[in-house]
Amino acid sequence: MTKGTIGFLKGLRARYGGNFLHCIEIESFDRTKKREVAKRDLQLRFDKKTGYVGHKVNGTVLDGISLYDRVLIIRSDGSYTVSEAPDKLFAGRDMLYCGLVDTEQVFNLVYTDPFQYNVCQALCDRRLYIEPSLSTGSRTLPRGGVYRR
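RESULT FIELD:
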């Protein structure tokens, strides 16, 4: 079948090729990231009763996401997780923030020092998203630090 198809195409080219001249120039192509072109047709939701977040959860709509988007979850104990569009992920009832990863966003976190009870401040920038691997928890505060609201 392959030989027959190739022969047929060569016959078409020999017969009609002179009538359809093509001026083709091949140029370089830029790579496109799948996150940039993916349609954000899923809704990231948070269920405060159960503490779950994801696009298959019933609850409050937080943002529109695609399957390729990364989501940042910051919990009240100072831990955070970066995950790719979770179906259903436990974030805790006392989750502080959940949204799309934005490398330009800076978080200003105020917490209480557990040993001296001083109020401290922590600035978290784009390194927050680069250092941890996906789906592993990392900390923004010292152990025992408590966020101030």
